[in-house]
Write a structure and sequence with these properties.
Strand order of the largest sheet: 1-2
Number of helices: 4
Helix content: 55-70%
Strand content: under 5%
Number of domains: 2
Radius of gyration: 21 Å
Largest sheet: 2 strands, antiparallel
Length: about 120
């Protein structure tokens, strides 16, 4: 067994943190080696900026028209914490609902990652 993410043969379940798998360790070791070698290429990606986050948000609103309505409904539901926080149903078809769900999930992931990455320790 290598890494802290592994399959327990006895319980037939995965255990640990996937970010600490042996595959991730191998990739990180390889990247660190390449970056530290004298002739490794230095073509790093640009760091995430607020401007890039704004572009991603604008793109989502352009691709998924019901996203603006959904975010307004969520904001209304969570503005007054003392009232019923039920989110009103949106009138969208199944295809639009699937698109909306993917965009909301991605935006939730992006903003959470952004918050964790930029927080001050």
């Amino acid at each position: 067994m290598r890494g802290k993410w592994h399959r327990d043969q006895l319980s037939q379940r995965w255990e640990g943190n996937p970010a600490e798998s042996s595959e991730v360790d191998d990739i990180m070791r390889s990247l660190k080696h390449k970056a530290s070698s004298e002739d490794g290429d230095r073509a790093h990606s640009l760091p995430m900026t607020a401007a890039f986050m704004e572009k991603m948000l604008a793109w989502s609103f352009e691709i998924c028209p019901s996203l603006a309505e959904a975010t307004r409904a969520l904001k209304r539901a969570f503005d007054d914490m003392s009232s019923d926080r039920t989110v009103p149903a949106l009138k969208v078809d199944l295809r639009e609902r699937a698109l909306l769900t993917r965009h909301l999930e991605q935006l939730a992931f992006d903003t959470t990652a952004w918050t964790l990455w930029t927080r001050q320790a």
